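Feature request, filed as a ticket because there's no other form

It would be nice if the structure record came with a short human-readable summary line next to the tokens. Right now we just get the raw output. Example of a typical job, pasted below so the devs can see what we mean:
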Amino acid sequence: MVAMKRIVLILLVTLAAGMAAQAQVALGIKGGISSSQVDVKNVRNTFTQFRDKENITGYHLGAFLRFRTGSLVIQPEGVFSSSGGKVALSQNQDGTVVETTEAFRFNRLDVPVLVGVSLLNFARIQAGPVASVLTGGKFGGENLESFMDKTDIGWQAGIGFDIGHVTADVRYERVKRTYTGPDNGFDVGNQQVLLSLGFKVFGN
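Raw output as currently delivered:
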């Protein structure tokens, strides 16, 4: 599955490069906030149980290219983001079940490549894969970089609007990573709703 996602990502990047010579091109900057959460599954070799607790607020900042031919839109981006979520941990300690709340924090470089259609010259519907590189992270007081996948492939989907040089987007994103520690392991799904505002530096 991961290999297939990578192939799709490579094909989309190649298609975007091929369109660049004949398409309308815009370059812009963007930023915004997100509401993110995590879900922990497939817990291995541990007596700890996880339960989804609550969302946390994150942020993102980056740049985008937009290639447009007719109603077809391809938009690769490079975005630095902070996301995560809180979980409740129930653990048996000397016969007593103790519950604590800990937070996952992920700092990432995300590279989505979105394909979509333009509607009425001001609205967009887009979706596509996102390559995610973990640049830092914590779970409680533990650094995650040594125990989690550095790179993974997820996906994004959403709608966008353009008014002159100003852009706005609402998207859903999901990226899953695997934690492998010395005594346990589990899969961490990080999902978030992103609200973004951007500005086209040049192009339409």
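Something like this underneath would help us a lot:
The mean pLDDT is 84.
Strands lie at 24-44, 49-54, 56-69, 72-93, 96-119, 123-139, 142-143, 151-163, 166-180, 185-202.
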